[in-house]
């Protein structure tokens, strides 16, 4: 079964460093997402992306965050200058279409630890 | 703000007994409802979804959920728990007016005793 893959599975970085989390969505999917889960908290929406632009973002997704689809297969989340509170599990997801109720498929997540 | 509430943070059952994981959502027009499961060190896997068709939805691994509009609930059930069901379960909602954003519940950790 096709799946969303994410790398790295775990990354430790120093505060202030830039981090790039990578994702390969399912190949025929057109909508891409990032969610995150801080330890002990709910999974939260960060951003959705379609047709090479952000379609929606949450208040969490400030200027420190950016997303990019640099080629036909990868979808990346960049955090420019990491803070301690950015430590979380980051989930990439994708879907064929974007309407509410369409199934969104998630990757296994990337654990980011900022020290 | 629209929200979803999972009433139990932990549920413990014996193997072979029924499972009930409770979920309520804030009322709004045409919700779409999902249950996702997360096993340790794994991603979020879709168990089942409701999108305005039949109110009783069957999913994978013997799970099912019933959409009850009058109670704004979407509880997840399974007649007989298996050890492999031990995981974290998330009730997830989206609405027509919330674009494509999923709203997650806080999760219920299911423990299955032998």
How do the strands and helices of this protein lay out in sequence?
The complex is a heterodimer of chains A (115) and B (114).
Chain A: E1 5-7, E2 10-13, E3 19-24, E4 31-37, E5 43-50, E6 53-57, E7 65-68, E8 75-79, E9 88-95, E10 105-106, E11 110-114
Parallel strand pairs in A: 2-11
Antiparallel strand pairs in A: 1-3, 3-8, 4-5, 4-9, 5-6, 7-8, 9-10, 9-11
Chain B: E1 4-6, E2 10-14, E3 19-21, E4 23-25, E5 31-38, E6 44-50, E7 56-58, E8 64-68, E9 73-78, E10 87-95, E11 103-104, E12 108-113
Verbal overview:
The complex is a heterodimer of chains A (about 120) and B (about 110). By secondary structure, chain A is mainly β. Chain A contains no helices and eleven strands. Chain A has strands at about 5, 10-15, 20-25, 30-35, 45-50, 55, 65-70, 75-80, 90-95, 105, 110-115. In chain A, the strands form two sheets. In chain A, strands 2, 4, 5, 6, 9, 10 and 11 form a seven-stranded mixed β-sheet that branches. A four-stranded antiparallel β-sheet of chain A has the order 1-3-8-7, with no helix packed on it. In chain A, strand 4 (about 30-35) and strand 5 form a beta hairpin. Chain A is globular, with a radius of gyration of 13 Å. Chain B is an all-beta fold and about 110 residues long. In chain B, strands 2, 5, 6, 10, 11 and 12 form a six-stranded mixed β-sheet that branches. Chain B has a four-stranded antiparallel β-sheet with strand order 3-9-8-7, with no helix packed on it. In chain B, strands 1-4 form a two-stranded antiparallel ribbon. In chain B, a hairpin with a 5-residue loop joins strand 5 and strand 6. In chain B, about 40% of the residues are buried. The interface between A and B is medium-sized, with 29 and 27 residues.
């Amino acid at each position: 079964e096709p799946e969303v893959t994410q790398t790295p599975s775990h990354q430790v970085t120093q505060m202030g460093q830039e981090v790039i989390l990578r994702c390969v969505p399912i190949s025929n999917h057109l909508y891409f997402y990032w969610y995150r889960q801080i330890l002990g908290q709910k999974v939260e929406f960060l951003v959705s992306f379609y047709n090479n632009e952000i379609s929606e973002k949450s208040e969490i997704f400030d200027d420190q965050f950016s997303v990019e689809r640099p080629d036909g297969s990868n979808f990346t989340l960049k955090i420019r200058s990491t803070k301690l509170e950015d430590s979380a599990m980051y989930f990439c997801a994708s879907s064929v279409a974007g309407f509410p109720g369409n199934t969104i498929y998630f990757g296994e997540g990337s654990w980011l630890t900022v020290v | 703000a629209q929200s979803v509430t999972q009433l139990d943070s932990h549920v413990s059952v014996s193997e072979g007994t029924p499972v009930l994981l409770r979920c309520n959502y804030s009322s709004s027009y045409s919700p779409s409802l999902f249950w996702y499961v997360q096993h340790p060190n794994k991603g979020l896997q879709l168990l089942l979804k409701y999108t305005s068709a039949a109110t009783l939805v069957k999913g994978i691994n013997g799970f099912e959920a019933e959409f009850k509009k009058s109670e704004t609930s979407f509880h997840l059930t399974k007649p007989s728990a298996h050890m492999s069901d031990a995981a974290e379960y998330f009730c997830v909602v989206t609405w027509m007016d919330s674009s494509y954003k999923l709203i997650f519940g806080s999760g219920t950790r299911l423990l299955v005793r032998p």
